[in-house]
Amino acid sequence: MSRAQAESVIKNIIREIAHECASKGQAVSETLVAFMVKAVVLDPTNEFNVDRTLTKDDVQKLIKICVDRLMDSRSPALDTVKMQVYFDMNYTTRADFLEEHRRVLESRLQPVIREITDSRARTREELESLYRKIVSAVLLRSGLGSPTDIAVVREATAALQSVFPQTELGTFMSLIKRDKERQLQELTMIVTGIRLFNKECGKGGEGIDDLPAILNEAVPATTQNIDTEIQQTCTSTYRYTALIEKMHQTSDKKDQGPSLKLLKDSLINARQHEAFLKIILNDVIGCAQQVESLEGQLAARMEQLQATVQSKTAVPTAQVYPQFIHLSQLWSSFQDEMVLLSVLSNILASLEPYTRGHRELFTEEIITPFLEGVHVKTDQERIKETMGKEHQVKPADFIRMERDWIFPETTKNFKRLPLQYKGFCAYTLVKQDRLLLPSNPDIGVLLYNDHYFAFSSKSSAYFFAEDPDLYIQQAADAAKKSPELIQLLELHTQFASITPYAQAKDQGKMIEKPITKCDSGTQTDTHILEPNIVKSYEWNEWELRRKAIKLANLRHKVTHAAQTNLSNFRRDNMSQVYLPKDQKTQTKRDNYSNVPKPQTFLAGLRGEGVSLPTSMIKMDLTLDVDQT
User: Which residues contact 87 (CB under 8 A, 6 or more apart)?
Assistant: First the structure.
């Protein structure tokens, strides 16, 4: 079965489960159904084999199990999963909250802004109507009063006319759309600043709420409300923990009180609620700090404006407009804090129904008789009991096993270590079947496979260190049976197929993480772009140099160079030249030729007398070359 076919089958299963739950009067989100399907498949007790295709009987069995779990109205485990789904789908960072709020506000303002920027007013009545629309847009964007309140409209119109009279509409109409939107935004900030300053001076401020005073009342009230919720949740947590420990210590568990499984599910629900409440409380504290900072800036800006304006009849716009804009931005920050506080309060109120189940199951009247003679310890008391050198792990006991232990006195930023299992004891989680006990890192933190494990006692640390792989695997098995632990203990790295709910909004994906490694191949054309051959391109740098010299006409120039102490040995320069080579050329050669050697003989020079003349005969005795 291909991936697309598998996703189609999963989508159909999710829709059928959601439809069946709705027919029984229980509305569930598809995100919750998708997570429940994955949890049921992961649970080994349900005997689903993920390596083979589900048969028709398997699908019917899966649907039945999921519907039964989702319809269980007295299941703290289901309430925990619902709480996790709700929180992850509705909570995000401060910046994302405010960005989403501004995006929604701008989308609502778009029709009004578009009507102004697209206007082609010509007549006097049309221009007056356009001006009224600009006033309304300024009021809507600033959030200072209602556009239907006549007193608010009059005050805003007077402030707008002081910076943008109706005679400027002609210039405004000639601008392009983007410039019109920019000018409208700037006018909104200036008018807002003027109205806020007039309110401070007691000359206006119609329809403007005192946001700093409201926030100063709302923030402490919200903080107190969250603190109360945390105390109630912690009280339930401590009681559940004490009763579970008592039941584990007692040999006969059948006659010792309520269901141990329900108690542990309720403990997990309370721990998760406590974690979410602390996240919200941290954000509210951040709001309080931000409000305090904004109040100081607002007071300083008002004093500066008072000094600038005083009793002058005219003030240069270059001096006063930037201050009005900054004042408007400060007020916008107050509005952001109001929005953020409202969202956090809504999330806080929405979490309470998910804890109602275990509080109704284990009321004070039911659980108090079982706690007689039991000292209910708080998390702080448990940690205090294991403080001191005698409770610390001794690394010398683990020399053979080569375990790495980290201690506060030898580690910087020890409190910021990312502890595994959200800081709960790793040994107790397995040994006492999903019991969540707070760990004391001062005992010693075990570094194993790049994970940090903390423990509630010295003995727990020693037992875990003997075979960490066994306990890690058993913790994963426990999370398969109770899938809400995957989110609470942040075990997503051990369950690669499950991601936080906020990342699994698409139905049918079974909350799967994308595969990060795979073998793949791609093929591209040899020449994707059109061929572009540049005839003048030259790769030879010597040819480029020759052309450069030719262009610069350096043949008739004189180059001067100078060297100073600062430039000496600054860098190594290298140049490439043709090395000289030995070469011979032949220009002439020695040669000879053989010629006959002339020889002559003169005869008749002797023997004659004085009276007779001498008769001389010349004889040629030269021999040929061949005869020599």
Answer: 276, 347, 351
Determine the Cα–Cα distance for residues 467 and 252; give it in Å rounded to an integer: 30
The tokens describing 460, both together, are 């727990």
Burial of 283 (0-12, 13-18, 19+ CB in 10 A): buried
| Long-range contacts, stretch 358-362, CB < 8 angstroms, 24+ apart | 358/76, 358/79, 358/236, 358/262, 358/265, 358/266, 358/269, 358/270, 359/236, 361/74, 361/76, 361/258, 361/262, 361/266, 362/236, 362/239, 362/240, 362/258, 362/262, 362/263, 362/266
Q: Could you give the CA distance from residue 97 to residue 345 in angstroms, rounded to a whole number?
A: 13
The per-residue pLDDT for range 499-526, each reduced to its tens digit, is 454 444 443 333 333 333 456 677 777 7
Question: pTM for the whole thing?
Answer: 0.72
Q: Which residue has the tokens 């996703």?
A: 7
369: tokens are 């008789």
CA 295/CA 337 separation, integer angstroms: 12
Residue found under tokens 């210590």:
249
- At 343, the amino acid letter reads V
φ, ψ dihedrals at 603, nearest 5°: -110, 150
Task: Find out whether 219 and 287 touch, Cβ atoms under 8 Å.
Answer: yes
The pair of structure tokens assigned to 244 is 């579970």
pLDDT in tens, 326-381: 999 999 999 999 999 999 999 999 999 999 888 888 888 888 888 888 888 898 99
Q: Which helix (H) or strand (E) holds 445?
A: strand 445-448
- Phi, psi angle pair for 296, to nearest 5°: -65, -45
Residue identified by tokens 């509630």 is 456
Indicate the burial class of 242 (C-beta count within 10 angstroms; 0-12, 13-18, 19 or more): middle
Q: What share of the chain is helix, strand, coil (3-state, %, to 5)?
A: 60, 5, 35
Higher pLDDT, 309 or 295: 295
What does the pLDDT read at residue 507? 39
Instruction: Identify the three-state secondary structure at position 617.
Output: strand
What backbone torsions phi and psi does residue 405 show, to the nearest 5 degrees? Answer: -115, 140
Q: List, as one string, the DSSP characters of 319-347.
A: HHHHHHHHHHHHHHHHHHHHHHHHHHHHH
Beta bridge partner(s), residue 438: 424
> Are the CB atoms for 389 and 435 separated by under 8 Å?
no
